[in-house]
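Protocol step 4 of 6.
Sequence for Phosphoribosylglycinamide formyltransferase (Hymenobacter polaris) entered exactly as in the expression construct, tag removed. Do not edit the line below.
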Amino acid sequence: EAKLAILLSGRGSNMLALAEAIKTGPLRGLAEVAVVFSNDPAAPGLEAAAALGLPTASLPSKGRKRAEFDQDVVAALQAYRPDYVVLAGYMRVLSPTFVRAFAGRIINIHPADTHQHQGLHAYEWAFDNHLPETKITVHLVDEGLDTGPILAQQVVNLEGADSLAEVQRRGLAVEHVLYAETLADLIKRNAAQPEGTSC
Ligand code: GAR
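Step 5 output, structure tokens:
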């Protein structure tokens, strides 16, 4: 089973969906949660993870320099020997040190097409611009901001969504399914062809 380090900064609904997918969904038998980590010790998602009996860890990022903070996070995560670092609403740009430490094994979900929108507030962007649809994106993380190779995308119909809450509701419902399925595919693919082998 692949060991996941799930990183979050807030509510943790994607973390909960992944935990559920490990129990009864597409990640069953494929993955386990090594740790749920947050850069905010008060993140509600941490408490939700602890309530499920999952191991949790946190380091406050407030007031820290990015590179130094990320070095500490890398050290903290490495203690859990994760096979994958799964960003689930982790609202920080990763420094090159971090990305290199887990190169090719960091995965993110972004609530928009990363070719059209990067960074924060993607649902606000879709709602404010009255977009008829948006595209949830799961991608590998490289050293840029939401520039890594796309693993999967799914369109969300936003027609008639007349509030930001409704846009988020529709989007999150897709996120929660797409993230687990895409991660399951990635784990299976990597298991079939381990790193370092060529065809
Ligand atoms: C999700 O919509 C996720 O896609 C987004 O933050 C939310 C976290 O919700 N991530 C980003 O915007 C990353 N740029 P959650 O804490 O309930 O999973």
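Step 6, annotate. The first helix runs from residue 13 to 24.
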